[in-house]
User: What shape does this take?
Amino acid sequence: MKIQLRYFASIREALGHGAETIDTQAASLAALRDELIARGGAYADALARGRAVRVALNQTMADEGAALADGAEVGFFPPVTGG
Amino acid sequence: MAERVSIQTQDFDLSAEVAALRGQDRGVGAVCSFIGTVRDRNEGQSVSTMELEHYPGMTEKAIEAMIDEAFGRFDILGARVIHRVGLLQPTDQIVLVAVSSAHRGESFQACEFLMDYLKTQAPFWKKEQTPEGARWVDARVSDDKALARWGIDARNA
Assistant: This one.
């Protein structure tokens, strides 16, 4: 299935880009994050387990247990600091 | 229906926004507002400029949902949230939350609720320029605690 990925703030900077489309079989957000970590390099560092990373599914804050479906938009970003 | 959420680079005018809230409903007897501004110092360092990034689409959706939640919790008549993005200078306005109600208690509470909610659940990120270079602002545990007072688990910082 095709998933649209979005990256923001320090994660966007670390990866060097803010968006990409990937083909994946990851069933959940957690599995997707693991798949990206497995790419190594900046991905392994920016999305490392133990690092504070928040995830949005279709533009809504989500738990990593949430299931993925074809065409989903997933955002990875650090804790938010607006206001 | 009046526009409730704006994400914009340009500044905003508190008087105009409050006048609009008063004009929406002749039953308005109270308007409370909060404005957040850029400080010239943070975490012991001077700050020369601040850049704000957000997640277009999600930001508006998240804040609209927060306003719906505020309407469900408090007896309010109107609400307006404006958040600026892009490059800002110390003393600049960053965010406006304004709420109207018949009596003051509900708008005082709803204004604080919306601001606490926005701090930990709206996808904005601040980057400061300091004498030692640029740095992303860290989320504060105290902001998570502020939202916990309303019975919501922030899980941000």
Summary: The CA atoms of residues 2 and 39 of chain A lie 18 Å apart. The helical segments of chain A are 9-15, 29-37, 41-46. The longest strand of chain A covers residues 2-7. Chain A has a mean pLDDT of 98.
